[in-house]
Amino acid sequence: FIFHSLQAKMSRPVQARRLEGIDKNIWVEFVKLAATYSKVNLGQGFPDFPAPDFLREALTRALSGGNHMLHQYTRAFGHPPLVKVLAQFFEKLLGRDLDPMTNVMVTVGAYQALFCCFQALVDEGDEVIIIEPFFDCYEPMVKMAGGTPVFVPLRPNPPKDGKLMSSADWQLDPAELASKFSERTKAIVLNSPNNPLGKVFSRGELGLIAELCVKHDVLCISDEVYEWLVYDGKQHIRIASLQGMWERTVIIGSAGKTFSATGWKVGWAVGPDRLLQHLRTVHQNSVYHCATIAQEAVAQGFQRELMLYGKPESYFVQLPKELQQKRDWLVQSLDGVGMKPIIPEGTYFLVADISPFKSDVPDVPNSDEPYDSRFAKWMVKNKGLAAIPLSAFYSEAHKNNYTNFIRFCFAKEEATLKAASDILQKWKQEKTS
Ligand code: PMP
């Protein structure tokens, strides 16, 4: 009898309703495929070159220096030296006074800052506008909070005179964007520089978004993890610095992206106390705080950068310089084999058109899987080169809109980029011979 009742108990559903429809994630599959088959991995977004010496030295000092308390808990909402230096840094960037204790919160990567935003600010039935293509976690995070994602696409304009397309050619249609705002809209997610396209939103585009946010009393979750990775002398403009936006914006950043140390998982949220106080409630009741020792080392990294701000030795000046060269090299090499790249203005990603290689990977009509996804799987299994299909950055309803593109990450050693280029060149020769 006891045995039967135990069995009956176990047969009830175990999954919470909030997970319905979000339990599949393409990253799980693509990360596994890359681990199994890739010889060259330009898929997931992380550098394969070392984090800068000053950062690694800061971690070593924190680990073996005299302060053994760095191995213990620290302040929940951010290790004091880190929130202090972040506040100083963002005071400079935003031109306003910040309180380290109320305007900054440290999180476990930008990922957790995003999660805190959605949990803290989005209610059942609220709509959240997401610009496509988007960093994929926004959609499930909105849904988990009970909100409804509303998508608005960046639309590509064909480039003129046979030139390569730029990420700047992908633009919002102002009327279409405006049509998505209503009294149900709680927030818009902005990601500039944008993953996956590398688009850096212009002042005009940000102005339009800001105007709509103010008009409809909408919050802005501004994911700026690639803020330092902007090329060709372009400027990253912070939407929070636009008229009427500070009070309604949470800025999200990542030490992983900023200092090429994605495994450290240190991120932050910067914003007005009226928003951050609610993020703190979520953080307090879920993660509590992120590793003290990593926060200490990141704090020292920022202290160095504050001292060298704008100088040639600054990592925030050097890293984009180096990455721009890598970008240019990959652009040339992809163009050379006919895989037309969309030149990114920022980030360390590049989206390229796979059309000339399609004959090797036949289409399966009426398949539920977008073509680019099948192509990327075929490529890693047969050519050993890992990349991510662009359709992974679209909602379910729109994932078949652009299926001719894959995304490469170029935050890689020269040898890695060269190996990728060799694979593509060999592939192209095999096709033509
Ligand atoms: N936002 C964007 C746009 C990203 O590309 C990433 C990482 N790929 C994150 C947030 C997450 O950053 P972190 O690793 O600091 O959690």
From TrEMBL:
EC nos: 2.6.1.64, 2.6.1.7, 4.4.1.13
Entry's Gene Ontology molecular function annotations: cysteine-S-conjugate beta-lyase activity; glutamine-phenylpyruvate transaminase activity; kynurenine-oxoglutarate transaminase activity; pyridoxal phosphate binding
Main localization, broad class: cytoplasm
GO terms under cellular component: cytosol; mitochondrion
Keywords, in A-Z order: Aminotransferase, Cytoplasm, Lyase, Pyridoxal phosphate, Transferase
Domain of life: Eukaryota
Pathway where it operates: Amino-acid degradation; L-kynurenine degradation; kynurenate from L-kynurenine: step 1/2
Keyword check for Cytoplasm: yes
Catalytic reaction(s) noted: L-kynurenine + 2-oxoglutarate = kynurenate + L-glutamate + H2O; an S-substituted L-cysteine + H2O = a thiol + pyruvate + NH4(+); 3-phenylpyruvate + L-glutamine = 2-oxoglutaramate + L-phenylalanine
Classification via Pfam families: Aminotran_1_2
Localization per record: Cytoplasm, Cytosol
Cofactor: pyridoxal 5'-phosphate
An annotated GO BP: kynurenine metabolic process
Aminotransferase class I/classII large domain segment(s): 39-420
Family the entry assigns: Belongs to the class-I pyridoxal-phosphate-dependent aminotransferase family.
Record note on quaternary structure: Homodimer.
Protein name (database record): Kynurenine--oxoglutarate transaminase 1
The organism of origin for this protein: Setophaga kirtlandii (Kirtland's warbler)
Gene assigned in the entry: Kyat1
